Structure formats: structure tokens, C-alpha cells
Amino acid sequence: CYGLRYLSPTHDHTIALVRALFSKAQQAGFIDGAQSYTTHTAFITALLESPKIYTALKQEQPLFFSDLLDCLYYFCNEPINATERFEAIRRDLWPLPQKKESMWTIDMHQHKPLTAQLDVHFCLKQAIIDGTLFDDDADAQAFRIVTGQGRHSRRHYAMIKQAVVDYVRDHYPDAYDVIEPPNTPWLVKISKKKPSRNTDTPS
């Protein structure tokens, strides 16, 4: 499903590919074989809601659902739907951030680029530790994100790290600084920007 984002949903070959995926999913019992899914979105949504997939997959759950969400977001062109579904299943599939030595920390190894970006937003704006959001935690000035450095990527490129860096710089340029420590290429730190001081001299 991940590769579907690069294909046209209306192309005949793409439609044939999705039908083949649909048939395989029905044969495997992941979705109801008696149902007729008339759109790509309906098919992907049925997979996301399938309880049999949760039980059939074990360690592969996060990456598999990352692919489905990526397909829903880009291929089906439904970013709001994908974001809402990510938030609904997030706690069951990915670890919550932890606080260690006055710093929030999370490991994003089990993500694809899209869900890593969705998770950055969740961690910065929705996650709560000890009853406090990250922005309101006066004791925590940085968020430590373990992204990996792309050793297991086919292109040996740190896709998750770049996705996280790009997302924060694009969406929160005035709120956070992004730090890429040179000695730890598998790590990204997001620090709160200090309020600018008024240096004007009173008249």
C-alpha cells in the first residue's frame, strides 16, 4: 500500500492493482468477503478497522498501519481522515513519550515518515506527562526524539529523521528550534524558543 502514493488513483493499472489487493485481503479473511467496497477509501478504511489484522500481525503492526495511513493520506487524498484515524489507534500501536532527566523522550523507530510527522504533532501538542503538556512543562526545555540514522533503509537515508526535522521547521518555526547533534546522528532535539526580549530603550 505504501507505494500507491506514487500512482494515479484513476489509472487503469492502479485500479487493477487495488482490486488485486482487495481480493487478497478478502481471501485472507481480513475484510468481509460479502461486502462491496466501491472506493479506494472504503477499502483502506475496512483494513484499518479490521480486528483480524490486529490479531494476525504482531511486531509488524506499527509499520503495516503506517503504510495504510500513508495510503489514506496521499493516495486517497484524505489527510483529515488519516490524521483522525492515526489519533484513534496511536496509543495501541506506538509508545507514549516519557520524561527522563527533565527531558521528554520518544523512540520513533516503528514509524514511516507520515506517521512520524503525525506523532510529532501529537507529542508536542496533545501528549501529557504528569498532567502537563510539553509546552507547559517548565522543567522540560527539550524533546529528545530517537529517529535512527537510516541503516535499515534501502537507500541508507534517514527518512524518519528528515521527516521530523522538516515537519517541525515548516509548522512551528516560531515555537521550536531543531537541533541535530553531530555526534548522535540518530537523534533530534526539539527545544522551546525563548521569548524575545524587547531591547527598545524607553523614551
Which whole number gives the mean pLDDT? 86
Structural class: alpha+beta
Number of E strands: 7
User: Oligomeric form of this entry?
Assistant: single chain
Walk me through what this model shows.
The chain is of the alpha+beta class. Helix content is 43%, strand content 13%. It has helices at 12-27, 40-48, 51-56, 61-75, 79-93, 113-125, 159-171; strands at 98-100, 103-107, 128-129, 132-133, 142-146, 176-179, 187-192. Helix 6 (113-125) packs across helix 7 (159-171). The chain starts with 11 loop residues before the first helix and ends in an 11-residue tail after the last strand. The model has no long low-confidence stretch (mean pLDDT 86).
Structural descriptors:
single chain, 203 residues, 5-stranded mixed sheet, alpha+beta, two-stranded antiparallel sheet
